[in-house]
Amino acid sequence: MNTVALIVAAGKGERAGGTLPKQFALIAGRPMLAWSYAAFAKNPRIERVIVAIAEDQQRLTAEHMPGVATITGGTTRRASVASGLAAMGDAERVLIHDAARPFITDAVIDRLIDALDNADGAVPVLPIVDTLVSTDGTSVSREGLHRVQTPQAFRVDSIRRAHAEWRGAEPTDDAQMVRALGGSVALVQGDPMLEKVTLPGDFAAAEARIGWETR
Ligand code: CTP
Ligand code: MG
């Protein structure tokens, strides 16, 4: 079955600071975007990798990711995903991924694609280890709660319909749009390697993760 990867890399990386948008900043000598691109490109179950960048990032992309074809994303993450969904033709499955999560493992890709045999979508999750409390001081049980990562895998027809029919505020991930239409989203085991780079200190943490074998 035809499976493609979509990396959304059209953000500004404002919280990460720095001179370049974070997806082009170097992690161990390699642009952040190049790490996830390479992982998808070498995975035998992924047939094509689509990269969405901002219109004004074409020169940066040519410089830092030579030879990589791109499409133009949008002004929100959801719009960037929508551009990618429109560009994947008759693909049957898609793994949607944030360029801000540089390290993807083949094991996670396998778990996600396999889960699509029985679900419209699948997301990698990790358990919450901290104690939770709400602002008003009420203790919140962490029982049954998870932290959600990307890549998120979907049957393309399901995620296209979910995007087309979404009327809510900007969602924080794609799976919630599929659930809103009653679609099933499986939870598979995530990986600490998939942690996101958001703030300036996260770059050093990402470099420290290289070489981890956590699976
Ligand atoms: N993204 C995108 N198009 C947008 C906004 C975000 O493709 N219009 C992508 C980012 O490039 C990133 C992913 O969505 O890979 C997750 O978003 P986030 O971590 O918020 O990245 P930025 O929006 O770039 O960062 P910030 O919010 O700090 O500006
Ligand atoms: Mg953002």
Description:
The structure is a single chain. This protein is an alpha/beta fold and 215 residues long. It has a single domain (3-209), classed as Alpha-Beta Complex (Spore Coat Polysaccharide Biosynthesis Protein SpsA, Chain A), CATH 3.90.550.10. The chain contains seven helices and twelve strands. It has helices at 32-42, 58-64, 77-86, 106-115, 156-165, 175-180, 202-209; strands at residues 3-9, 26-27, 30-31, 48-53, 71-72, 93-98, 121-127, 132-133, 139-140, 146-148, 152-155, 185-189. Strands 1, 4, 5, 6, 7, 10, 11 and 12 form an eight-stranded mixed β-sheet that branches. A two-stranded antiparallel sheet has the order 2-3. Strand 8 (132-133) and strand 9 form a beta hairpin. Helix 3 (77-86) crosses helix 5. It is globular and about 50 Å long. 39% of the residues are buried. The model has no long low-confidence stretch (mean pLDDT 96). The structure holds cytidine-5'-triphosphate and magnesium ion. Cytidine-5'-triphosphate (CTP) binds next to strand 1 and helix 3. Cytidine-5'-triphosphate binds at residues 8-16, 23, 52, 73-77, 80, 98-100, 198.
Please describe the structure with a list of short key phrases separated by commas or semicolons.
215 residues, alpha/beta, Spore Coat Polysaccharide Biosynthesis Protein SpsA, Chain A, eight-stranded mixed beta sheet, 7 helices, globular, binds cytidine-5'-triphosphate, binds magnesium ion
Rounded Rg: 17 Å
CATH architecture: Alpha-Beta Complex
What kind of sheet is the major sheet? 8 strands, mixed
Secondary structure category: alpha/beta
End-to-end separation? 26 Å
Task: Give, in order, the helices and strands.
Answer: EEEHEHEHEHEEEEEHHEH
Can you identify the CATH class?
Answer: Alpha Beta
Protein name: Bifunctional enzyme IspD/IspF
Cofactor: a divalent metal cation
EC number: 2.7.7.60, 4.6.1.12
GO molecular function, one term: 2-C-methyl-D-erythritol 2,4-cyclodiphosphate synthase activity
